[in-house]
Amino acid sequence: MSAVFRFAGPKVLRAGLSILIVVTFTFVVLRASGDPALQILGPSARAPDLEAFRRHWGLDQPLYVQYVRYVLAALHCDFGNSMLAGKPALQLVFERVPLTLALMLPALALTMLIGIPVGAYAAMHRDTWVDRSVMMLTVFGFTVPSFVLGLLLILIFSVTLGLFPSGGADRPESFVLPVLTLGLGGAAIIARFTRSAMIEVLSQLYIVAASAKGVTWRQVVRHHAFPNAIIPVLTLFGLMLGGQVAGAVLVESVFGWPGIGQLLVVSVANRDLAVVQVILLLVALTMTSANLLMDLLYGVFDPRLRGTNSGSQ
Amino acid sequence: MTLLRLNNITRRFPLGSPLYGPRKYLVAVDGVSLDVEMGRTTGIVGESGCGKSTTGRIALGLEPPDSGGVLFQGLPLPRIDSKKWRAQRRQMQLVFQDTLAALDRRMTVSALIAEPLAIHGIGDPASRKQRVAELLHGVGLGEGHGMLYPHQLSGGQRQRVVLARALAPKPSLLVCDEPVSALDLSVQAQIVNLLMDLQQELGLGLLFISHDLRVVRHVSDRIVVMYLGRVVEQGRADAIIDQPAHPYTQALVSAMPRLPGGFDHYVALPGEPPSPTDRPCGCPFHPRCPLARDVCRQSLPELLPLGPERQVACHLVRH
Amino acid sequence: MKTATVETNRPPPRSVDLPTLLAGGWVLLMLFTALAAPLMAPYEITSIDLRHRLAPPVGFGGTMLHVLGTDDLGRDVASRLFYSIRTSLLVAFGATAISVLVGTGIGFIAAYFRGLVEHALLLMIDVQASLPFLIVALAMLACFGNSLTLFVALMGLYGWERNARLARGLAITASAQGYASATRQLGAHPLRVYLRHILPNSAATLLVGATVTFPEIVLVESGLSFLGLGVQPPMTSLGVMVAAGREYITRASWMLLAPSLVIVITAVAVSVLGDWLRDKLDPTLK
Ligand SMILES: Nc1ncnc2c1ncn2[C@@H]1O[C@H](COP(=O)(O)OP(=O)(O)OP(=O)(O)O)[C@@H](O)[C@H]1O
Ligand SMILES: [Mg+2]
């Protein structure tokens, strides 16, 4: 029990601290970006109105009072209204969440479904021409930015071949190109990582021993090498998520996909700060939880890490 | 006149993690007092791990003692890394054993020797160049060596560079920590003689640290013998070598190759070299002492005078 | 300085393989273009020629007048491409310099003070890991608006944490070595120890770190410019060109393809070159 706590406690604490820092960061940036009263009432507002506005929102209070209020409001999920839509920012963002998830979840699945088998195959046929061309392809896969990849796919599959629509989210076919765009880059990273993890596991002694005992190669790979190589790959998930979130912003913009990413870009362009802030916190919360979950799962998979306090790196 | 005085210095290092359990300490230096006179040499001798380097570092003010005080020219040392402390480095310099590590391998010998001058703002670039040439000459290197990099020199040449670098700001105290231990015998002699010549010339006070009694005896006016962080005997060099009083000193002297004044019979040192982590109670030397009695196992002998300028810490010596 | 390189047991010179050679050639070409864009460009990037709107490139029915064709306003694509390369590389160069400087500074400070400062740094790295840089950059642009200086400074925040971690590790290794404490005990100010000794001894590795940061910044910059939130007209960058080309993807795909290909080839080339450099300079870097 105390061992579990010793292992998980610092990680949970650090995750909470990270979130608090992000909240503080948004507070500081929002305050530093100018007088909210002027921003909302406009430069032509009269002085008494500005005064009243400031008093109403507590902007005349000392900074630390404002900060505490801000954190308390955030705890109550009160983030203010979108200037553009006039609706609560939180509601606006959550209306878009399903569409973004509809893009990201299939893309993540695709990442794993392509990346892991390809990487494992390359590792088992190491240094053949298959391996080399796969590795060459993956270099393209993770260096080509998603917006370029998306536009190239549109050029080939919708402009030239006319197979899929180039935008919108109304038909089932509309999913194909955005999901492919978002998934392929991640697949390249996963493939490279799986390959090196497999190669390392395959070179370890017990694998050699198992194959010496007359077990077939196929069995060795399926029952020994693959399960051992897959654990570190799964922990890459947390890192992948960050790439996917950033990728989603660009991909949604390329395909006119009305998800969170597009909302973010529009809000940034219009300086709709309440919405930007909600999205920032949502992303931070998601990523931190995902990283925390991966850390804890890794501890479950790899009991050596429990008990030792290998926190910082 | 006394240049440097260590007064009852103690230094301990915590063992293990700072968070869990009660703290244990390794006592590296335990109540050491010694003097260095202007223009004279005090030698510290003792086995590996007995706290010689730690004493040297405390003498230079590179680390603080846990208790006791250091007086340099009659004044306590300023706080470490303070501005005054940095300025005082000009007066007190250190010569290392590991010369390759101590020299930045990206700088030429000339730049290395000129660095302390630049740090303390001594002279202008032209006069520094002049001074570097003098120093190179002074330690027996040619002007051509100035353009080389540390790894292009031999160990003896590097030791000369380190020496020149330490002497550049004209210090009044030089601490040499095993300056010749890594060198061949013939080169050792060259460097030691060079050191003595330079001392004569510049009037340096020297604290010379070595595990080798032969070298210490050659350079020192006074010798301090250390064992497990404590001084067991100190006095004038010839007196220590001719009539060692402490059994440990006797063993060290008798282990020296036969030299005039050496002991005729060899007193072997039985047992392992001591570890400061579990020091024996009573006299720290008793497990290895051929003459140990009951009293040695029970009480710690004090360092008491034995004749003029001479002190010994042994129950069996009649004071 | 040539004599400083250690001559002993250096591995026999390996011949550089073809991909690395090609990658090197391409990167040199890009650098040359960035420097010589004003000399190479046949037209002003803003000079409009409405009679030759959407003219195709040579080989696709175009004339030598506009080698890579023209855009919707009849502006020469080749000229705009050269200037875009110039802008993108300049922004990335400035930002990389900032990232490495800031990162090295913070890393050295953490190494010098240790303790609390170091913990704070590790926490910041955690926070950075919980927010994709693109999102942070967008939030800052939303709050502070856009200007070129601000944009470059913002890009300079990219990768600082990685450079800081690298610098901290290097500084800690270096201070454990004798020369740092030897210089300290000569009476040198810590600034001198860090700037004159530890920095030069770490420079090679820090430079390799910079070659990793640089292409990533090129990509982030083009992404933000593509979203219309980076480099603003009348200036042009690779991302700006891609964004403009996207409107004419059916009628004038060269507007899109020219900058896209430059981005793709440059990214791949720098990646290949970076691997080679890493192997050569510092095999310990991950
Ligand atoms: N920074 C430190 N932290 C912990 N222990 C230390 C430290 N410095 C020295 N010690 C310990 O203090 C004791 C004395 O060390 P010191 O370096 O002074 O010995 P020495 O006499 O110079 O030995 P040598 O002849 O091998 O150089 C040793 O046991 C050493 O392990
Ligand atoms: Mg020592």
Automatic annotation (TrEMBL), chain A:
It is a multi-pass membrane protein. Keywords: Cell membrane, Membrane, Transmembrane, Transmembrane helix, Transport. It is found in: Cell membrane. Gene3D superfamilies: MetI-like. Pfam families: BPD_transp_1, BPD_transp_1_N. GO terms for cellular component: plasma membrane. Its main location: membrane. The chain crosses the membrane at residues 12-30, 99-122, 134-163, 175-194, 229-255, 275-298. The keyword Transmembrane helix applies. InterPro entries: BPD_transp_1_N, MetI-like, MetI-like_sf. It comes from the Bacteria. One of its GO terms (molecular function) is dipeptide transmembrane transporter activity. Residues 97-294 form the ABC transmembrane type-1 domain. PANTHER family: DIPEPTIDE TRANSPORT SYSTEM PERMEASE PROTEIN DPPB-RELATED. Belongs to the binding-protein-dependent transport system permease family. This is Peptide/nickel transport system permease protein.
Automatic annotation (TrEMBL), chain B:
Its main location: membrane. Keywords: ATP-binding, Nucleotide-binding, Transport. InterPro entries: AAA+_ATPase (IPR003593), ABC_transp_ATP-bind (IPR050319), ABC_transporter-like_ATP-bd (IPR003439), ABC_transporter-like_CS (IPR017871), Oligopep_ABC_C (IPR013563), P-loop_NTPase (IPR027417). Transmembrane segments: none annotated. One of its GO terms (molecular function) is ATP binding. It is a peripheral membrane protein. The keyword Nucleotide-binding applies. One of its GO terms (cellular component) is plasma membrane. This is Peptide/nickel transport system ATP-binding protein. It comes from Rhizobium loti (Mesorhizobium loti).
From TrEMBL, chain C:
It is found in: Cell membrane. The chain crosses the membrane at residues 20-43, 89-113, 133-158, 256-277. One of its GO terms (biological process) is transmembrane transport. PROSITE patterns: ABC_TM1. It is a multi-pass membrane protein. Keywords: Cell membrane, Membrane, Transmembrane, Transmembrane helix, Transport. Residues 85-274 form the ABC transmembrane type-1 domain. Its main location: membrane. Pfam families: BPD_transp_1. InterPro entries: BP-dependent_transpt_permease (IPR050366), MetI-like (IPR000515), MetI-like_sf (IPR035906). Gene3D superfamilies: MetI-like. GO terms for cellular component: plasma membrane. The keyword Isomerase does not apply. It comes from the Bacteria. Signal peptide: none annotated. Belongs to the binding-protein-dependent transport system permease family. This is Peptide/nickel transport system permease protein. It comes from Rhizobium loti. The lineage of its organism: Bacteria, Pseudomonadati, Pseudomonadota, Alphaproteobacteria, Hyphomicrobiales.
